Amino acid sequence: MIGRIAGRIDYRAPDHVLIDVRGVGYLVYCSDRTLQALPGTGEHTALYTDLLVREDNLQLFGFTTLLEKEWHRLLMSIQGVGAKASLAILGALGPDGVGRAIALGDWNAVKAARGIGPKTAQRVVNELKDKAPQVMAMGAAPAPVKDSGEDVIEPMTPMPVAPAGSNAQAEALSALTNLGYAPGEAAGAVAQAAGETPDVSTPELIRLSLKLLAPKG
């Protein structure tokens, strides 16, 4: 399994890039959002990858973070969501947006992705809602966009590290579950509070989430 690839971008296409790794070209499919984040042709980059094996075809998909890769794998587990649909969802919402939409049960946000119908969007939300808290708390460090041209790397078991923006959400989620709130309920409140107040501190995010969880009336 090819877990990570690093090399020079030889050319870019609407849905993929060709990355030269010491003379071997790897064609890597990416979401629109990931493609926009990559450097230009001739520059070095690194991507986490997932290899899709079919009887008549091998396709490599690339991601800037382990979080994006994990969502891709989960989305692909849903009936009716293939690689193209998964990349469309990630391209439209980004990994954080996917987690927020699923935690909040917002299937309309998922439906906004190109080629995703309402039934598929609802299936995504319903089947992944229990897995969203764990993935949201996972976070991920971005793959370096500049690289000296090292070989393809296959990490054994990468340990994700949450970026600054994800730390508050992960800590708030942990605090709420420790207080006895159900993981799905806690994740929904944290996602909503973080969406309404970006870059908020952990204590404030916990306070806002608790306010959302408080009984109404």
From TrEMBL:
Protein's name in the database: Holliday junction branch migration complex subunit RuvA
Q: Name one GO molecular function term.
A: ATP binding
The ranges of region (Domain I) come to 1-64
Q: Which GO terms describe its cellular component?
A: cytoplasm; Holliday junction helicase complex; Holliday junction resolvase complex
Which NCBIfam families is this protein grouped with?
A: ruvA
Whether ATP-binding counts among this entry's keywords is: yes
What residue spans carry the region label Domain III?
Answer: 166-217
SUPFAM superfamilies xref list: DNA helicase RuvA subunit, C-terminal domain, Nucleic acid-binding proteins, RuvA domain 2-like
Q: Which HAMAP family match?
A: DNA_HJ_migration_RuvA
Superkingdom in the source lineage: Bacteria
Oligomer status and interactors: Homotetramer. Forms an RuvA(8)-RuvB(12)-Holliday junction (HJ) complex. HJ DNA is sandwiched between 2 RuvA tetramers; dsDNA enters through RuvA and exits via RuvB. An RuvB hexamer assembles on each DNA strand where it exits the tetramer. Each RuvB hexamer is contacted by two RuvA subunits (via domain III) on 2 adjacent RuvB subunits; this complex drives branch migration. In the full resolvosome a probable DNA-RuvA(4)-RuvB(12)-RuvC(2) complex forms which resolves the HJ.
Q: What does this protein do?
A: The RuvA-RuvB-RuvC complex processes Holliday junction (HJ) DNA during genetic recombination and DNA repair, while the RuvA-RuvB complex plays an important role in the rescue of blocked DNA replication forks via replication fork reversal (RFR). RuvA specifically binds to HJ cruciform DNA, conferring on it an open structure. The RuvB hexamer acts as an ATP-dependent pump, pulling dsDNA into and through the RuvAB complex. HJ branch migration allows RuvC to scan DNA until it finds its consensus sequence, where it cleaves and resolves the cruciform DNA.
Q: Where in the cell is it found?
A: Cytoplasm
A biological process from GO: DNA recombination
Give the gene that encodes this protein.
ruvA
Keyword list (alphabetical) reads: ATP-binding, Cytoplasm, DNA damage, DNA recombination, DNA repair, DNA-binding, Helicase, Hydrolase, Nucleotide-binding
- The chain positions of domain Helix-hairpin-helix DNA-binding motif class read 73-92, 108-127
Asked if DNA-binding is a keyword of the record, the answer is yes
Q: Which family does it belong to?
A: Belongs to the RuvA family.
Q: Which InterPro entries match?
A: DNA_helicase_Holl-junc_RuvA_I, Hlx-hairpin-Hlx_DNA-bd_motif, NA-bd_OB-fold, RuvA, RuvA_2-like, RuvA_C, RuvA_C_sf
Main location group: cytoplasm
Pfam family of this protein, just one? RuvA_N
Q: Domain annotation text?
A: Has three domains with a flexible linker between the domains II and III and assumes an 'L' shape. Domain III is highly mobile and contacts RuvB.
Q: Where are the transmembrane segments?
A: none
